[in-house]
Amino acid sequence: MCGIAGTVSLGHAPVHSPFASDACAAMAHRGPDETGTHVTPEAVLAMCRLKIIGLHDGSQPVFSDDGTVVCVLNGEIYNHKELRAFLAARGRQVRGGSDAQVLPHLYQELGEHFVERLHGMFAVAVYDTRDGRLVLATDRVGKKPLFYTRPTADSVAFASELPALMLHPGVREDTDPVAIDQYLSYRVVPAPHTIYRQVRRLEPATTLVFEPGRPERSRRYWRFEFTAELADTPQAEIDDRLDALLQQAVRDRLESEVPLGAMLSGGLDSSLVVAMATRQLGRPIHTFSVGFEHAAFDESVHARAVAEHCGTRHHVYRIGAQDAKEAVDTILTHMGEPYAFPSAIAASCMYKLAKEHVTVVLTGDGADEIFCGYGRYQRLRDLADGGDLADRYEGLLVDGVPHTLKNQLYSADFAARIPGHPRNYLRARFDRTDPSVPDLDRAMQVDSGFWLSDAQLVKIDRMSMAHSVEPRSPLLDHRLIDYVTRIPASRKLVGAREKVPLKRVAARYLPRQVLDRRKQELAVPLESWLGTELRSTITDTLLSEASLERGYFRPDALRSAVRAFQPGHSYALWTLFMLERWHQLQEDSTAREVAAAAHA
After folding, report:
1. pTM above 0.85, yes or no
2. How much is the CA Rg of the chain, to the nearest whole Å?
3. Model confidence over 123-135: pLDDT tens digits?
4. Residue 192, burial from CB neighbour count under 10 angstroms (0-12, 13-18, 19+)
5. Cα separations (Å) of 458 from 277, 341, 442, 470?
6. What secondary structure, in 3-state letters, does 312-327 show?
7. Bridge partners (DSSP) listed for residue 1
8. C-alpha span between 202 and 39 (Å, rounded)
């Protein structure tokens, strides 16, 4: 696991050589163990490494034997041993023990299609010195991030994190009104947008190629494809196949030369991963969960019961309002842009706890989007048919600032800067799905390409890396996904029971009470905190002079919305607060840089 950064010239001007090293220094939390840099006048590639595999012979950047291809990798390639054998059969000898070292050789063998042979989580940059080509690529589901920009018409810069990329002197900090409008609806900024006009985040399963004298070109090499192909397949056959695929996915993620543990919420998904991992390892592992004083949010008793069943060494972190206060700036600093999922507070605390014991953790993330696990899927199914699916689902999915409140808040000038306002941003995503497929399957396909990668996986990556911990998610194995997405939604959501096929497999490993317990997402007692301990902080932030003059909202309307807080408006208030707090952190950072320059 690493942070990667670089800049490449597509013309005759040399690149800004300090940027890549500066960016990696800013991402030291992603890779505190080692740094490496490749420097030429035309290209600089750098990395900061968290050592997991190949502790003593896995340094990056990595090179082809002839030195013409250089590569940096953030992530893990789980099938690197198979790829070594594949390359050896073609006369290419891979030296060193890390997974990254197969990449330049695989690129030389397969060209830009090399990513299609990779099993794992990754963001990778390959620079081919022979023709000055830069290839950027991301894994199939978007577990590892990669941001990029064009500082000039003849150059490219990239980095694993947005704050690191913003260190490039050629990048402007103008915010993007469309990104802000999307954020206020969904509480995240969806790719390819970022909060900045000039910067983009590479979408999942995408290769992006830059070559001198040619337009940049991108290619999507894999997609979630929800079908009903397995509608008539016997239940026992599906169960056995799912079991085998899950076992393989867990097994692939157990390779580690450093201590490994697991996140354990007490829910179905993480419990199943822990049960499979402990059975395969044949020894206890460390497991981690969070607890709350508010009983309605506290799953720690359920997590402990699973830990006792699996024989793990279990650890619990109890979260209070003070943790939330302290976590806000950490979340926004590592996100580099507004992000309003309160569950990031719990995630940050869990990874902080995990770091005290291990470097790698297994997680149960990814099941809800493919096994029909969200409550909104039941609500969509129960809605009357007819009408535009994008509009129906928008009404279920938007849980930040509702459109009606946006319209009350937006200043006329800001609304005019959003093309087509008010917009349903889901429509374009639904247009890419098959209209002949049932609504539930189409909704899961949209969520898998958006909600999963832009909300859930962003949270997991940034909060784990903030504490130098590598998360691995067996339920996001693309081979498992390719099978599960062929099972129709009608076999996953049966009556009020969600994730039915997964529960049947889990029954082979877990006690009945784990399977029958009501689903509870990793949530925090936000309504209570907003009405008590966090109330003054949020009010002071949103009604500050800077906030009222920001230009997004009409001051009187913002004052009214903040002062009229009701528990049902918790997410809206939190979304507004995190936007303004992000702005304040940016301004504080700029002020510190100006002051430092003045005293230099």
Report:
1. yes
2. 24
3. 999 999 999 999 9
4. middle
5. 24, 10, 22, 13
6. CEEEEEEECHHHHHHH
7. none
8. 24
